[in-house]
Amino acid sequence: KRCCMGRDQAVKQVQHRFGLAPVGEAGRPAGDVWQVDLAPLAVRIDAEPGARPAAVLVVENGVVLHVELQNTPPAEPEEVAAELERAIMHAANQTGSWPERVEVRDAEVARYLSRALARREVEVVRATRLEALDVLAADLREHLTGLAPTAPAATSPETWLGWGLPRETIAELFRAAADFWRRHPWRWLPSDVPIFALEGTSRPWTCTVLGNAGEEFGLALYAETDDFFRMFEDGPPFANATGPILSLTYDRATDLPQRMRREVAAAGWEVAGPDAYPVLITINTPGGGLPRAVAEDLTRLLRAVPEFVAHHREALDTGSPPEEPLEWRSPGTGVLLRLEAEGELRVDTHWEPVEYLAPCLPGGPGADPRAALDLTLDPPGGVDDLMSREMAAVDRFEDALRADGLSDATVRKHVTNAATFVEMLAFYQGVPVRAVTEYDLRSFLFDLYPRKVRDAAYRAEAMPTSLTRFFEFLGEREGIVCPWAGAVLAERDAYRDRIVTFPGGFWWDEGVEEWRTVLTADLIDRAMIHWPKHADDTPWGPTMGPEEAGLEHEVQRLWLFWRDEAILGGLSDPHQVRKAAIERQLAWEQTPHPRLDGRTPLQVIQAERREREAADAPRSGR
Question: What is the share, in percent, of the chain residues with pLDDT greater than 70?
């Protein structure tokens, strides 16, 4: 639903709502962080059917520094960034100062804006949420329309040309939409089963086919996979969406705006029938628009998804999730699509999907990655003895820092952080420094440290810098070379977000479980976590006896070797590497183990489970 008004009236309403000072008058002093956006307004302008009005907003600490109405805002990220730059310059002139940091919603817009503001030494970052700005934008929409505010706002102009795309781009999209309708892929694919577009589009998309419930037919695209899963949570749809979303559905001709019907007829764009006119809504796209690259992605996926369904129809016709992942590269579009196997749906993370894998073990003359295999959950001398031995490396690190001439305070900070890492590495993972892997560093930075230490803010902020120095020391002085460490420690935004978003509580608490799932999903993407099922199709855990727990520790360490062996053997695709490691794991479970008196790990685990069930039976009344 939209309110319709004249342009001059809309401009006055926007200016009146926030009571901005006229250009040239002195404003209030600016703060350190500004939030900026080109926010859709969900209003229509009289006599301008192609309009999709948006407000350019510059907000500091809940106060609007600049606002203006744009009737036909740009959609291309570079052009949106240029508009935001102009608004920031205007606000800076009004307030007499520049911000230290600017937060924007779209990553590509942030990249262009960062280049533009570099000469001003203004940091530009992408923020998944612009809380203060969104509150004001929702208030402005309510003021203009009288409708209850929704966040984020959806955009859908009254005409297709209102998207600002070339006519041939729209014509090709219409042809693809008509073909999608005729192939009716919703007959075989439920709307709660996502398909991942991995290659052949401008960015990875999570796709879902609409229509399995027989109500609304079409295709929805999510730039952030988490936004797809949020659709199944309580609350208004899209209320917590953080990335661009496209929803193409179909309407009857009689339900379309008259201007759109005339437009389609005049252009001769192809439709599959009177009930199959495509209608597009965008959410969280730059300026509420439809960048050309995104429109072309939508066209490719309207063609590729039905091809995928047709190719895998036999597997999909069972009505159950597939036991193995399904993939298909569309010959016509080059798009690579993947449907995950049961239990393997990807959770959206702070990290981009991994395309190519590199080894994760340490190297160099001082490294001994197999040392962690010799340590079960009860290492010789106990965990305390292990930690005491490992702290010798921290002592040598301290000596090296002092030799470099650092101040006492700096040395203490770096040494304390390195000691925290080494102690937790030994205590929680049973891993000596000489066996440290990328898996261990990621587990520490993005799970163990934020969850278990809750350190002082200044020390937490310095942790990546401290560990960067520590890993440099390990490579230069200890002969333990970890080529992956620098890239992991450079992931500062993800690290800070993990600290800020930790909900507090124990690992079994629902909020903490969800928080940990984000990292688990990323480690699965990197093929760093062992297969969660046994060869007899029973899962590891969730509660384990001592034998199974010890073997689980062992198989996790072995998995990292199997992973790297597959990579060094020529594989780099995460799915191929994971498949090769799974085969090694299942074979290991069914091979007699020298530590288990010739029994296989699976036999030992099954026997222990039977013993535990028998012991629990009297207590349960069976």
Answer: 86
pLDDT in tens, 512-556: 888 888 898 889 889 999 988 888 878 887 678 888 888 998 999
pLDDT at 486 over 90: yes
Beta 43-45 vs 63-70: how paired, if at all? unpaired
C-alpha 140/C-alpha 142 separation (Å) is 5
Tokens describing residue 53: 């009005």
Peptide bond into 542 cis (omega under 30): yes
- The SS3 assignment for 50 reads coil
Over residues 373-425, the pLDDT tens digits come to: 865 444 455 566 777 788 999 999 999 999 999 899 899 999 999 999 999 88
> Which parts of 477-545 fold into alpha helices (H)?
485-489, 492-501, 510-525
Pairing mode, if any, of strands 3-5 and 43-45?
parallel
In 3D space, the residue among 380, 340, 367 whose CA is nearest the CA of residue 564 turns out to be 367
How far is it between the farthest Cα atoms of the chain? 86
**What single letter denotes the amino acid at residue 7?**
R
> How much is the average pLDDT of 494-506?
85
Residue 342's nearest CA partner among 316, 318, 322, 319 is 322
Residue 239 has, within 13 A of its CA and on its CB side, a CA count of 9
* Helix, coil or strand: residue 440: helix
Q: Rounded to the nearest 10 degrees, how much is the dihedral formed by the CA atoms of 111, 222, 204, 524?
A: 110
Residue 218 has, within 13 A of its CA and on its CB side, a CA count of: 19
Identify the bridge partners of residue 207 per DSSP, sorted by sequence position: 195, 221
Q: Give the containing element (helix H, strand E) for 180.
A: helix 167-183
| DSSP category for residue 30 | P
Tell me the β-bridge partners of 339: 326
- Quote the CA–CA distance of 9 and 41 in Å, as a whole number: 14
pLDDT digits (tens, 9 = 90+) for 219-230: 999 998 888 887
pLDDT tens-digit readout, 246-260: 999 999 999 998 889
Question: Would you give the distance in Å from CA 319 to the centre of its chain?
Answer: 28
- pLDDT surpassing 70 at residue 214: no
Residue 401, token pair as written in the block: 């820092």
Q: Which amino acid is at 206?
A: T
- 525/198 Cα distance (integer angstroms): 13
- Nearest of 55, 91, 47 to residue 71 by alpha carbon: 55
Q: What amino acid occupies position 266? A: A
Task: Tell me the percentage of the chain whose pLDDT exceeds 90.
Answer: 48
Q: How far apart are CA 566 and CA 490, in angstroms?
A: 26
Alpha carbon 4 to its chain's center? 37
**pLDDT band (50, 70, 90) for residue 282:** very high
Element (H, E) at 175: helix 167-183
Start-end of H helices in 312-407: 313-316, 382-403
Could you tell me which residues are beta bridge partners of residue 329? 336
Half-sphere exposure of 62 (CA within 13 A, CB side): 0
At residue 23, the 3 state secondary structure works out as: coil
> How far is the C-alpha of 530 from the C-alpha of 307, rounded, in Å?
33
198 in Cβ contact with 339 (< 8 Å): no
Token pair 């695709």 in the structure block, residue: 573
Per DSSP, the three-state class of 199 is strand
Mean pLDDT of the chain: 85
Tokens of 92: 């800076």
